[in-house]
Amino acid sequence: MGKQAIKAENLVKHFGKGESLVEVIDGASFQVNKGELVALVAPSGAGKTTLLMMIGCVEEPTSGTIWLGDEKVYADKWLTKETRKIRREKIGFIFQAHYLIPFLNVIENVTLVPQTNGVSEKEAKKTAMELLEYFEIADKAHAMSSELSGGQNQRVAIARALANRPQIILADEPTAALDSKRSVDVVKMLKKIATDQDVAVIMVTHDEAMLPLCDRILTIEDRKVVSHPVPEKITMI
Ligand SMILES: Nc1ncnc2c1ncn2[C@@H]1O[C@H](COP(=O)(O)OP(=O)(O)OP(=O)(O)O)[C@@H](O)[C@H]1O
């Protein structure tokens, strides 16, 4: 097994046709390795969400090649009919809003996807409790989402994204709804997951204070993806 978790070559995404053609991504080539936490930073409308959704096998590219781990999943077309299966097995999503299901308690939210994937209830609960303990929120396992703070809900959402043991985490502005202390906690947690579990994490963020906590920055410039080192660590954090 190589170190590559995500690789894209000459990726293109256009929306619409003729006069309404929008060229969002045009010839992007980049790689993200296992164990890396990478920030994706670009102005509004530059194509960050579009890029995440292509990597996540949700949005079909116009052309190009994508590998997830060692598996080539897209080469000018999806190489499997089962993109949903790839998504379920390899990828965990985290969004700005936590999207926990309000009528299920914390542990039920975390066990939902593994159980949908055929994992037994006992096994799914065991893994969920381990994750909740790891995120120091196991005491809330039987609470409802509405009883939790924003930061606690986001920790549960991260536990849920990890419940399937994905190789890749795609996080779209996971700290946008949090204050600066909670944001730092969440990003540090994402870094810990990347390091401890050899997972690749791409996190869209508009918050410059989060960048020193990441390993690398990807930007979208002229519709291509460009890699940058992170700025110096800010001692305040
Ligand atoms: N389904 C679609 N049909 C047509 N255009 C789309 C579609 N989805 C996205 N776009 C366009 O693609 C561009 C990139 O959108 P995207 O949401 O990826 O940007 P973003 O960088 O994530 O922006 P933000 O920071 O505001 O979330 C925008 O110009 C948007 O209008």
Descriptive account of the structure:
One of its GO terms (molecular function) is ATP binding. It holds the Pfam family ABC_tran. Belongs to the ABC transporter superfamily. Macrolide exporter (TC 3.A.1.122) family. Keywords: ATP-binding, Nucleotide-binding, Transport. The structure is a single chain. The chain is of the alpha/beta class and 237 residues long. The chain has one domain (4-228): P-loop containing nucleotide triphosphate hydrolases (Rossmann fold, 3-Layer(aba) Sandwich), CATH 3.40.50. It contains 6 helices and 10 strands, in the order βββαββαβαααβαβββ. Strands 6-7-8-3-9-10 form a 6-stranded mixed β-sheet, sandwiched between helices. Helix 3 packs across helix 4 (121-134), helix 3 (106-116) runs parallel beside helix 5 (150-162) and helix 5 (150-162) runs parallel beside helix 6 (180-197). It is globular, with a radius of gyration of 18 Å. Bound molecules: adenosine-5'-triphosphate. Adenosine-5'-triphosphate (ATP) binds next to strand 2 and helix 1.
CATH topology: Rossmann fold
Query: Spatial order of the strands in the main sheet?
Result: 6-7-8-3-9-10
Number of helical stretches of at least 4 residues = 6
Rounded mean pLDDT score:
91
Largest sheet: 6 strands, mixed
Secondary-structure element sequence?
Answer: EEEHEEHEHHHEHEEE
Q: What is the number of independent domains?
A: 1
Q: Quote the distance from N terminus to C terminus.
A: 35 Å
The CATH class: Alpha Beta
Shape designation: globular
Helix content percent band: 25-40%
Give the percentage of residues in beta strands: 25-35%
Structural class, judged by helices and strands?
alpha/beta
